[in-house]
Write a structure and sequence with these properties.
Blueprint: H1 2-11, H2 14-28, H3 40-50, H4 55-68, H5 72-77, H6 80-87, H7 94-109, H8 118-122, H9 129-140, H10 149-158, H11 171-181, H12 187-200, H13 219-223, E1 239-249, E2 255-259, E3 270-271, E4 274-276, H14 284-296, E5 298-312, E6 316-330, E7 337-340, H15 342-345, H16 352-368
Parallel strand pairs: 1-6
Antiparallel strand pairs: 1-4, 2-3, 2-7, 5-6
The protein binds a DNA duplex through residues 46-58, 89-95, 98, 125-131, 134, 146, 148-151, 167-169, 192, 195, 198-199, 204-205, 234-237, 264-267, 311-316, 351-353.
Length: 369
DNA sequence: TAGACGTGGGT
DNA sequence: TACCCAAGTCT
């Protein structure tokens, strides 16, 4: 397949291709908040948010985040709890913890300036090959490839590259192609145009080839193979986990919440007491009771079920049976285990799954009157 | 290298 | 319902 790729590269008029692509981008690019200036910090924030996330979803988060943390210094000095709160609902929460960690690194060791060196910027937490290339090209005009899913889709079609883009090893094939094609006059627009083309024209299903500014350069269009490319093997189906959870209140009406561990799923986010249901055990209420007694040294009374929730992650599904109940006593309040009022709870960051549990609780209360 | 890591939207 | 998809990175 490498031979074929080199062959297609030789068929391309690179100057014309760059010109057609960039002219189209200049005319058709969307107005996006992170395109207003070239502040490397803002470009960086936007690129992290955009990872595996739609533009429409990111826009309000980007604006709120930049408002709260407008500079490297501001983010560097912010409390993690506030930073997580600004990310609440965006998903892949390790992104923002890595971002803050990397921003601190830049603040302390790079005089507060995002490094313009490929090796230095790539050493920052959460900055992989795509993000490094995106920041270097967009903020600094350095001709480095920024290969994301769009770029692989677009170039697989233009150059007839049949490598499986689901495999990590394929990325370097596309990086080599970009290095051969990229405009050294305007690497920023070149990279952004490739991605914009993938988002607006060269879409995964039913691409708009008739509107494509680089149609004449596209091997897939010539061959009629645009619906077969890119090659992407499918993932295995994920597992389901049964969860029992409870919204518990003490006599004053305060809610018992718990901070998750600093590694793994939903790291450092807050949650309502819950545990995985082990089949070969007693009933689920008793299992939750045991967990709460062991982990929080609390005595609780679990009452009615308030709802059943299915929450789908990318790699697993939680089927949650949610209850309400009371906290009779608790020996160990701590930095990770707290009793808080509904108002105080708003300052804590919860995953969407646990927000759903609380919504069930509210609905149940309203229904009871 | 493949699986972990979120969420919401589309078919 | 059950996939797949969206500007990836880490382990």
């Amino acid at each position: 397949m490498k031979k074929a790729q080199v062959k297609q590269l030789e068929n391309i008029d690179i100057d014309k291709f760059q010109q057609d692509l960039i002219s189209w981008f200049e005319a058709e690019q969307r107005e996006l908040p992170w395109r207003k200036d070239k502040d490397p910090y803002k470009i960086w924030v936007s690129e992290i948010m955009l990872q595996q996330t739609r533009v429409d979803t990111v826009i309000p988060y980007f604006q709120g985040f930049i408002e709260q943390f407008p500079t490297i210094e501001a983010l560097s000095n912010a409390e993690e709890e506030r930073v997580l709160k600004a990310w609440e609902g965006l998903g892949y929460y390790s992104r923002v913890r890595n971002l803050q960690s990397a921003v601190k690194e830049v603040y302390e060791n790079y005089d507060g300036k995002v490094p313009a060196d490929p090796q230095e910027i790539s050493s920052l937490k959460g900055v992989g090959p795509y993000t490094a290339g995106a920041i270097l090209s967009i903020a600094y005009g350095i001709p480095e490839p920024a290969v994301d899913g769009n770029v692989m889709r677009v170039l697989s079609r233009i150059l007839s590259i049949w490598d499986d883009i689901a495999k990590a090893s394929s990325r370097k094939v596309f990086e080599a192609a970009v290095r051969a094609l990229i405009s050294h006059d305007n690497p920023s627009y070149f990279n952004q145009a490739l991605m914009e083309l993938g988002a607006l024209i060269c879409t995964p299903t039913s691409p708009s080839c008739l509107l494509c500014p680089v149609q004449e350069h596209c091997d897939a269009f010539r061959e009629g193979t645009q619906n077969e490319l890119p090659v992407k093997t499918r993932k295995k189906k994920h597992r389901h986990v049964q969860i029992v959870a409870a919204v518990l209140q003490n006599a004053e009406g305060k809610f018992l919440i718990h901070k998750r561990p600093d590694k793994g799923l939903l790291a450092n986010l807050w949650e309502f007491p819950n545990t995985e249901v082990i089949q070969a055990f007693i009933n689920e209420k008793d299992q939750l009771n045991e967990m709460v007694k062991d982990a929080y040294e609390a005595e609780i009374q679990i009452g009615e079920m308030i709802g059943q929730i299915e929450h789908v992650f990318s790699h697993l599904t939680w089927n949650i049976n949610a209850y309400q109940g009371q906290v009779r006593s608790i020996a160990k309040e701590s930095a990770e285990v707290k009793l808080v009022t509904a108002e105080e709870m708003k300052a804590y960051t919860f995953s969407v799954s646990h927000q759903k549990i609380f919504q069930q609780f509210i609905q149940h209360i309203e229904k009871e009157g």
